[in-house]
Amino acid sequence: MKDETIVLHHGHRRDESTTSVTVPIYQTTSYQFNSTDHASKLFSLQELGNIYSRIMNPTCAVLEERMTKLDGGAAGMALSSGQAASAFSIQNICHSGDNFVSSTDLYGGTWNLFNNTLKEMGIECRFVDPTKPEEFENAIDDKTKCVYAETLPNPKLNVFPISEVGSICQNNKIPLIVDNTAAPYICKPLQHGANIVVYSTTKFIGGHGLSIGGLIIDGGTFDWEKAGDKFPMMNSPDPSYHGAIWSQAAKPLGPIAYILRARVILLRDLGSAMSPFNAFTFIQGLETLPLRMERHCSNAKQVADFLNKHIKIDKVIYPSLMDGVHGDRANKYLNGGYGSLLGFELKDGESAGKKFIDSLKLLYHVANIGDARSLAIHPASTTHSQLSKEEQLQSGVTPGYVRLSIGIEHIDDILQDLDQALNKT
Ligand code: PLP
Fold first, then answer.
1. How far, in Å, is the centroid of ligand 1 from the Cα of 33?
2. Is the CB of residue 107 below 6 angstroms from any atom belonging to ligand 1?
3. Nearest C-alpha to atom 5 of ligand 1 is from which residue?
């Protein structure tokens, strides 16, 4: 099946007991075991099956299977938020005393998680500028367990060099984890050399601003066993699961050691499971993701062209309009659709930025991206207002910077609203 068909059909044809075509919301905490033998096999992982909804749920399972298929992975796991997905993706392989390397260009919440919360837990994050991919090599040492990056990080919108850094990771026998929240369907990080993908499903996958959720997709391509002593959490007996060795325990089930451990250890111990109702809303969103992404991308391209010619604007930040290497990377990784995120810098700085936002009539002023509706924010007065001017500039936020997430409305209405608001600045 092609992507457009996968998102509608994979993992569920009809409910076995009711014949329901729509994926049912299995709003249940627990599942009755067939016998004590059956229960014992489930707990010892000799057989995979439902035990308790903190660890697995059939509605969540359809979302997990569809997204895994779409991305070409081996297994997926749904979580209560994108933040939980990012945190678990690291905590599943790093413990206190370890480090990992991350691109500097990250969503602010992830940056805080890496720079502060994980640090307090004894896990060090080393930041590297993604415009210099070769520098990732220098930051890696014996205690480095992975590299983390975002495909299309805003506000800079520099497309991350996935295959270049993927090769560095491969040479150093560590996995590359890519947050593909901003580019589902248009970018397939696993095809370019990433080993694990994380998503905030809150954004484009849900698409309608209804629920908070996250996903981790395991490509199944990283050989944990071969990497040996470097990954004791995968290759030595786990006292919290009757001495299971995850790289061995997963063998009969497929190349899913990473997701298996994340599920039966992290979801079991820390919670953060996705609710079945929220999974249902993400399944509805996913069904139309390819169609929406096409419209998001074509609208955004027209907005970028319009803004590029506007007299009030100094600079447009949009991957396909970027010169040189970033434009080339957009072509290489984003499969022709450059996403719906774009930024622009107003000539008249901060006051113009605020005036623009306050003049919008159609676009929503919200701290979100990836909604079917068009959204706008002025980071210098909102998401980045607690940072010093210098820190704002390092994050790509100038005083007159405005970020847009272009929706799927008629392009004429979007352009008209942008034009009238720009003319008031
Ligand atoms: N990753 C990216 C790229 C994001 O933009 C966000 C949220 O804005 C997150 C992760 C966190 O996701 P959530 O808000 O679902 O926890």
1. 37
2. yes
3. 107
Pocket test for ligand 1, best of 90, 102, 180, 200 (most atoms within 8 A of CB): 200
Neighbours of 256 (CB within 10 A): 23
- Burial code (b: 16+ CB inside 10 Å, e: under 16) for 146-182 equals bbbbbbbbbbbbbbbbbbebbebbeebebbbbbbbbb
Tell me the two tokens of residue 421.
Answer: 């608001």
Among 89, 105, 110, say which to mutate for ligand 1: greatest number of ligand atoms within 8 Å of CB.
110
Q: What's the CA gap between 114 and 79, in Å, rounded? A: 18
Comparing CA positions, the residue from 136, 162, 147 lying closest to residue 90 is 147
Q: How far is CA 40 from CA 35, 239, 246, 263, 264, in A?
A: 9, 18, 18, 18, 15
Q: Does the beta carbon of 105 sit less than 6 angstroms from any atom of ligand 1? A: no
* Sheet strands side by side (includes 214-218): 75-79, 214-218, 196-200, 176-179, 144-150, 99-103, 124-128
Residue 333 φ then ψ, to 5°: -100, -25
Predicted confidence (pLDDT) per residue in 128-155, tens digit: 999 999 999 999 999 999 999 999 998 8
Q: How far is the CA of 233 from the centre of ligand 1 (A)?
A: 27
Mean pLDDT of 367-379: 96
Alpha-carbon distances of 109 from 97, 105, 161, 276, 393, rounded to whole Å: 23, 12, 22, 25, 18
Cα–ligand 1 centroid distance for 108 (angstroms): 9
- Domains observed in the chain: 3-284 (3.40.640.10), 289-422 (3.90.1150.10)
| Ligand 1 center to 420 CA (angstroms) | 30
Predicted local confidence at residue 326, as pLDDT: 84
The closest of 298, 295, 318, 296 to 308, measured between CA atoms, is 318
pLDDT of residue 124: 98
Compute the distance from residue 200 Cα to the ligand 1 centre, in Å.
Answer: 5
**Average confidence (pLDDT) over 48-71:** 97
Burial class (CB in 10 A: 0-12, 13-18, 19+), 63: buried
Instruction: Give the Å distance between the CA of 107 and the centre of ligand 1.
Output: 7
The atom of ligand 1 lying closest to the CA of 181 is 3
For the CA atoms of 67, 194, 180, 115, what is the dihedral angle to 10 degrees?
Answer: 130
For 174-212, write each residue's pLDDT tens digit: 999 999 999 999 999 999 999 999 999 999 999 999 999
Q: Is the CB of 179 under 6 A from ligand 1?
A: yes
